[in-house]
Amino acid sequence: xxxxxxxxxxxxxxxxxxxxxxxxxxxxxxxxxxxxxxxxxxxxxxxxxxxxxxxxxxxxxxxxxxxxxxxxxxxxxxxxxxxxxxxxxxx
Length: 91
Prior knowledge:
Layout: H1 22-49, H2 52-55, H3 58-90
């Protein structure tokens, strides 16, 4: 019997986890610092949104909210990458 082909979006070699390259190991080692800085940026932007100057200015509020959304997206991206590399490092 032949094995069923991989579903779209699934790797053809299901179950095989590629080990980290040297570059990826260094990236993983640096992600903690990057995550801390990204989370700090989110906290700073959340604080800025609550200031009277921003609350009373629609244009400043729009800019601050846009900046916050970008910062939160970066935190999510970094956590996703950290998870991916950590899983592969532990395999």
